[in-house]
Automatic annotation (TrEMBL):
Keywords tagged on the record: ATP-binding, Nucleotide-binding, Transport
InterPro entries: AAA+_ATPase, ABC_transporter-like_ATP-bd, ABC_transporter-like_CS, ABC_transporter_ATP-bind, P-loop_NTPase
UniProt xrefs under Pfam families: ABC_tran
Organism whose genome encodes this protein: Rhizobium mesosinicum
Protein name as annotated: ABC transporter ATP-binding protein
Domain ABC transporter as annotated: residue spans: 5-239
GO MF terms held by the record: ATP binding
Residues annotated as signal peptide: none
Amino acid sequence: MNPLVELIDVSLSYAGTTALSGFRISVPEGSFAAVVGPSGCGKSTLMKLVTGLLPPTSGAVLVDDKEIDGPLNIVGMAFQNPNLLPWRTTLENVLLPLEVVRPARYEFRQKREEFTARATALLKMVGLENFADHYPWQLSGGMQQRASLCRALIHRPRLLMLDEPFGALDAFTREELWDVLQTIWTEQRFTTILVTHDLREALYLADTVHVMSARPGRIVRSLDTVQFARPRDEKTFIDPRFNEAVLELREEIRNQRSPPDMQSLTRAAE
Ligand SMILES: Nc1ncnc2c1ncn2[C@@H]1O[C@H](COP(=O)(O)OP(=O)(O)OP(=O)(O)O)[C@@H](O)[C@H]1O
């Protein structure tokens, strides 16, 4: 499969801080990639580069074989905070990107009914069919995150970028949402890049788990998860190979952490 997203020798520096250096990744169209790494290694920076919100300092960010030169409209995004607009109902929140993302916004007025039907179908897929007219404050955190997933997918993006979308949820709700995401992805096969601290989440959802080094971040390991048959379910968690892979990734990330700053440790001990 051709890569939809490719970063070639990318570096990105903020004033005085090199966040990424020598970063390479290739994400085949229709695949699910997860990116894990130690805190501050540049995962969110990667999201900003791939969505075109930040240009690289050097190297190339290619999407669909073209170097990107601004925000992309083929992307859907979801973050740890669902960021639903409090004055809009669930349905209205899901429809929001169609009102702002080109070219959908030109069609929105003529095809409102069709788009509403699409939003309703998505809400059904995530189990929110009876909450379309509710406001965000009437929804639990998990329900808000389900709505945020629908909003990310309403314009049928070719690329879904997820930055810790389940990070703030309790373990049970989080695992429920993994299955919701797995079901939608299996059906629609949009290319997905998930940034997460949760190694089980990465292994459960992705085709390939990429491990980043400590800052300046680059990919130091890419682990294929093909041995875990899809659809994955609770049996996946008790597969010894799954737990071995979690331990392996944990060890890899531990080795990537920067050595402790001895001066601050000494200061903290005083
Ligand atoms: N706007 C900025 N200006 C200066 N430095 C920044 C800026 N944004 C991020 N950084 C630095 O770049 C590095 C990478 O940040 P980034 O937020 O991408 O990491 P992350 O892996 O997403 O972090 P976390 O795991 O804590 O969510 C960090 O050291 C951070 O302090």
